[in-house]
Inverse folding.
């Protein structure tokens, strides 16, 4: 089992005004510093989400953040959880992934998903309709590109003639690819066909355990070797656990999570992270503290949402 820390790229409250130059610069630096600290504290990975078109999103590009973190770390694994590949030109995305993987000397994992936020697509002028089909085409192009051979592709949305990715990824034949979804059906089928499954927004641990066990059996039946499951656990950092729970437990979490929130006081941030022991997960996220007091420029020091870790068994 391995644990990772997930950087929170939101700073402050929703629907705020665009940040000042100083606040934006400080936010980017803080995300990088959190990743460096996570490595120093013994986390096995750092995760980066993709968010756009919102005033509180100070660090919208997970790939640029990943490159900066790769340059400042030496051991920790870096993953996007998750990137929306339909917002990119597939070959441009393949080049950027390869550069990050080479810069990190093989420490990058590409976590991707179809996405649930229609405004992200609107922001980039990408149609929301047929996003699943578009996603499948992007992934098909990426697989061909990472294989290293020259190829052509003629799809509904993307066409490439006699192209080749160079340089290739550091990891061969490809970087690991995780598919994120909390839906059954075709989205989950895509994850089973990939190198792992990112499961966010779990109903509860017992239900998730049954679902994961069933899905792992399906993945094993395909003859795949290692197949990862990535889980998350939200948590908040504050000086007073009762007040922190009252302030944040209801915010987008539902009542079920109020009994499973991780509440961490700043004085305990240097201790060993709390680790769930469910055997059903190859990767699990334990969202605990980062050791940095508050988001600089975020406008509030009272409490801080923490993000967390990836757990992996062999």
């Amino acid at each position: 089992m391995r644990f990772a820390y997930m950087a929170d790229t939101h700073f402050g409250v929703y629907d705020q005004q665009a940040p000042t130059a100083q606040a934006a610069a400080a936010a980017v630096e803080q995300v990088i510093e959190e990743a460096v600290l996570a490595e120093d504290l013994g986390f096995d990975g750092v995760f980066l989400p993709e968010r756009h078109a919102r005033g509180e999103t100070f660090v919208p590009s997970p790939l640029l953040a990943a490159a900066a973190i790769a340059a400042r770390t030496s051991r920790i694994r870096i993953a996007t959880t998750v990137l929306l590949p339909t917002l990119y030109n597939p070959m441009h995305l393949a080049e950027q992934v390869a550069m990050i993987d080479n810069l990190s000397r093989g420490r990058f994992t590409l976590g991707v998903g179809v996405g649930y936020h229609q405004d992200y697509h609107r922001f980039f002028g990408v149609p929301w309709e047929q996003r699943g089909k578009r996603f499948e085409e992007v992934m098909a192009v990426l697989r061909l590109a990472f294989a290293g051979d020259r190829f052509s592709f003629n799809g509904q949305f993307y066409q490439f003639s006699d192209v080749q990715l160079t340089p290739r990824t550091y990891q061969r034949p490809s970087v690991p690819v995780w598919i994120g979804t909390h839906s059954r059906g075709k989205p989950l089928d895509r994850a089973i066909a990939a190198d792992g499954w990112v499961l966010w927004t779990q109903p509860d641990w017992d239900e998730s355990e049954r679902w994961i066990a069933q899905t792992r059996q399906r993945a094993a039946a395909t003859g795949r070797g290692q197949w990862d499951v990535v889980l998350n656990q939200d948590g908040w950092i504050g000086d007073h656990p009762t007040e922190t729970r009252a302030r944040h437990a209801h915010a987008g979490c539902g009542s079920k999570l109020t009994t499973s929130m991780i509440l961490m006081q700043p004085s305990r941030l240097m201790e060993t992270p709390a680790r769930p022991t469910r055997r059903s997960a190859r990767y699990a996220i334990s969202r605990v503290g980062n050791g940095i007091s508050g988001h600089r420029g975020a406008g509030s020091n009272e409490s801080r949402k923490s993000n967390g870790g990836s757990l992996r068994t062999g």
About this structure: The radius of gyration is 19 Å. Residues 251-314 have pLDDT under 50 and may be disordered. DSSP finds eight helices and twelve strands in the chain.
